[in-house]
Amino acid sequence: MRNVIPVLTIVAALIALWYIAVVPMNAQWTQDQARRAGQDISFTELVADTMSQSRPRLPAPHQVAQELWNSTIVEEMTGRRGFMNTGSLSNRSLIYHGWVTLSATLLGFAIGSGLGIALAVGIVHNRGMDASVMPWAIASQTIPILAIAPMIIVVLNAVGITGLIPKAIISTYLSFFPVVVGMVKGLRAPDQMQLDLMKTYSASGQQVFAKLRWPSAMPYLFASLKVGIAAALVGAIVAELPTGASAGLGARLLSGSYFGQTLQIWSALFAAAILAASMVALIGLIQRVTLKRMGMAA
Amino acid sequence: MKDTRSSQTNAPVIEAQGLNLTFETADGPVQALKDVELSIHKGEFVSFIGPSGCGKTTFLRVIADLEQPTAGTITVNGMTPAEARKARAYGYVFQAAGLYPWRTIAGNVKLPLEIMGYAKSEQEKRVKNVLELVELSGFERKFPWQLSGGMQQRASIARALAFDADILLMDEPFGALDEIVRDRLNEQLLDLWARTEKTIGFVTHSIPEAVYLSTKIVVMSPRPGRITDIIDSPLPRARPLEIRDSPEFIEIAHRVREGLRAGHLDD
């Protein structure tokens, strides 16, 4: 409970600020409409109208919540193309678009973490890789993802790879880096004394890795995975933008901006945020269970 | 008790001849060991005492093949230190207990047994035995942070005793503990030494500790690290704590102190 109250206080403050901002952002349109109709409107009418426009500059929080609800549960339960009527997810629902993005995110994250761990193991055990890999890994992250994503997708398209894989590769590109950095640090966490102890047992390199380096790296691994999965989601969304993809949260953002559908944009943004938060929370849960079983309650 | 000693019982377990070790540092070479000559025989309890920088820990690490001498020879059980290490001839106890936080006490003691490939049933049996030996029975399932510093160090000694090494090397194992805990652990260590008949090399900078524990005291001095005196203790092997008030004890302690002072006068 102690932790919940401060969080709720901040959330409440942000929502209040948001509501306050809605009025000046949308007032212009309301006033124009009134002038055109030759009407005088009171301040309360003005405020009420700024919060119920169909294409507001800045939608009010309850509008976004309503849109989120309509485009998920309502669409699937009652929509013509919804799950209850057709047996498959509706292409107008955020559940469908969220899943399209999530599947690419998870695949990219799996490849990215695997690659990150493999590179870290190489860097820690091989002098040559230590000197050569890290600068390239850092360089890779200095290239704007928006610049390289279209090229990756176009090149892969040209060789006949489309759909999930190109998006997953961009997720991989963003998510391997935090895992490399965290795991290099984690695998190097054991101090000289612990390594000396292993040496007195004539332990093999594999044994040192399995019994000392790997368990030492666990707290670092989970911290990196949390950053990695959020980055993977960003990668998948960015990958959906430049290709005019018809499905995915990125596609919803793009089509929303083409047609001035701010509600659609904001609800897609929130869907992405909820997705990211859930995934990070899930990793946090796995972390707590794992570290607790290892006797290292975090 | 199983006899693990080598066939030639009179040959020294550890023998160093003309041993030199120079570290190359950024400030130029530092001579950590100079012309060290020493023989340690089976079942002896040898303490290395001296101020910081006298090379006592370095010498222990050379025996353990954790440092390489730059000149001279050293044999451990008649082999080079590297061969002896690969034959798992010694257990090493560091200054800090260094238990793995993610392993229980039993799991920590089991670590060397797992690495050396002992059978599961044998592992359980040995863990039980050594934890009994260091009076930690009943703490098998505790994690290190649930134990006091003294208990952690006892667990780390149990870890070094778990496998069949007949040499035990200890690098200031009780240095970080308070006097009362230390006395108790010293008593226990003597008891353990009598029961296991191991050869023990023990680094300390406490004069009473060295005199109380040892059959042989090696006094060392710094810059360059060298041996200034080797004292064979006339004290009997069975030593109650009260022996520290006997005239013999005080006499040896005096000689150790003289040796340490002589080493410093050379500066």
Can you put this structure into words, describing what you see?
The complex is a heterodimer of chains A (298) and B (267). Chain A has 2 domains: 1-58; 94-293, Orthogonal Bundle (MetI-like fold), CATH 1.10.3720. Helix content of chain A is 79%, strand content 0%. Chain A is built from 12 helices and no strands. Chain A starts with a helix and ends in a 5-residue tail after the last helix. In chain B, helix 3 (105-115) packs parallel to helix 5 (149-161). Chain B has helices spanning 56-63, 81-86, 105-115, 120-133, 149-161, 179-196, 207-213, 247-265; strands at residues 14-25, 28-40, 45-49, 71-76, 90-93, 167-171, 199-204, 216-221, 226-232. Chain B has 8 helices and 9 strands. Chains A and B meet through helix 9 and helix 10 of A and strand 5 and helix 3 of B.
Largest interface, with counts of residues having CB < 8 Å to the other chain, equals: A-B, 18 and 25 residues
Instruction: State the share of residues found in helices of chain B, binned by percent.
Output: 25-40%
Quick one: CATH superfamily of one domain in chain B?
A: P-loop containing nucleotide triphosphate hydrolases
CATH class of the largest domain in chain A reads Mainly Alpha
The string of secondary-structure elements of chain A, in order, is: HHHHHHHHHHHH
Radius of gyration of chain B: 18 Å
* Shape estimate of chain B: globular
Number of strand elements of chain A: 0
Spell out the CATH superfamily of the largest domain in chain A.
MetI-like
Mean pLDDT of chain A: 90
Question: What are the segments of chain A in which pLDDT stays under 50 over at least 5 consecutive residues?
Answer: none
CATH top level label of one domain in chain B? Alpha Beta
The helix tally of chain B amounts to 8
The portion of residues assigned to helices of chain A is: over 70%
> Gap between N and C termini of chain B, in Å?
49 Å
Structural class of chain A: mainly alpha
Q: Note the run of SSEs of chain B as H and E.
A: EEEHEHEHHHEHEHEEH
How many structural domains of chain A? Answer: 2
Q: Approximately what portion of the residues of chain A adopt beta-strand conformation? A: under 5%
